[in-house]
Amino acid sequence: MTVPRAPYLYSFVVFFLVALLPADTLGAADSAVLQGRILDMSGNPVQGAEVYVYNSPQVKRPADFISKSTADDGRFHIVLPPGEYWALAISRKSGLRYGPLGMGDKHSGEPLILSFEKNDERDIDFVVLDLSEAARKQSKKSSETILISGRIVDSRGKPIHPAYLVADSRQEPTIPAYISAWTDKQGVYTLYLPPGHYYIGAASVFPPARAVSLSRQVILEGDVTGLDVVLEE
C-alpha cells in the first residue's frame, strides 16, 4: 500500500476542515456581510430559521450559502464574497435544512436580489409566513376583489388534500402572486383576487418544489364557483 506524502495529506486535511466551516466564519478583509432578523407576520423574532443565499435566480436547488439557525432573538449573520445574490429565509418545523416545505413550515416568498461590493455590510429583515398566513393576507373580500372556489382533483377526479390553488398573470412564476389556503378533505379551495386575466394551477407543497407552470388561462370578472383544477404531478 502506498502511503500519501505528508504535504498532500496536509493539504487535503486543511481543505476538508475549511469546507466544514459555516458560511459566517469564512470572513476575509474584502468580504461582505448580510445580517438582520427573521420575523413572523406580527414582527416577532423567529427562532431556528435560516437565510438561504444563491448566486443565481435558480433557487430551486441547494443554496450556495446558508446562515446559522437563528436564536430566540431571530438574528442572522452571513459572510459573502462580493457579487450579486438572491436571498430568502425559511423556517422549518422539522429542523431540517433541505427538501420541500411541509405544512406549517414558513418561507419569505420571492427571493430578494442583493448586490455586494467589497466590505459592504447590509442589515435586512425577512418576514416568513406559512401557506395559511399567506392566504389570509389575501382573504378579505372587498369591492375590488372577487371570490373563486372549486375543487383540486387528480387526473381521475379524486379530491386532493392538502393542496392549494395558485394564480398569477405570469405563466411560470417562482412564487405565484395569489395562493389559496390548503384544501379541505373534499379538495375544496377558496381564493380572493382582483378581476383580471390569470394563469391558474395547483400545487401540493409550499413553496412549490419548482417553478409552477400554469397552463390554464381564465378571465375573471366576477365571483366564480365550481372552478375545478387538476393537479398535474
Structure description:
With 233 residues, this protein is mainly beta. The chain has two domains: 30-127, Sandwich (Immunoglobulin-like), CATH 2.60.40; 131-230, Immunoglobulins (Immunoglobulin-like). The chain has helices at residues 6-19, 131-136, and strands at residues 32-39, 49-54, 65-66, 75-80, 83-91, 106-107, 112-116, 121-123, 126-127, 146-153, 164-168, 178-179, 188-193, 196-203, 216-220, 229-230. Strands 2, 3, 5, 6 and 7 form a five-stranded antiparallel sheet that branches. It starts with 5 loop residues before the first helix and ends with a strand. The relative contact order is 0.15.
Give a quick rundown of the structure.
The chain is mainly β.
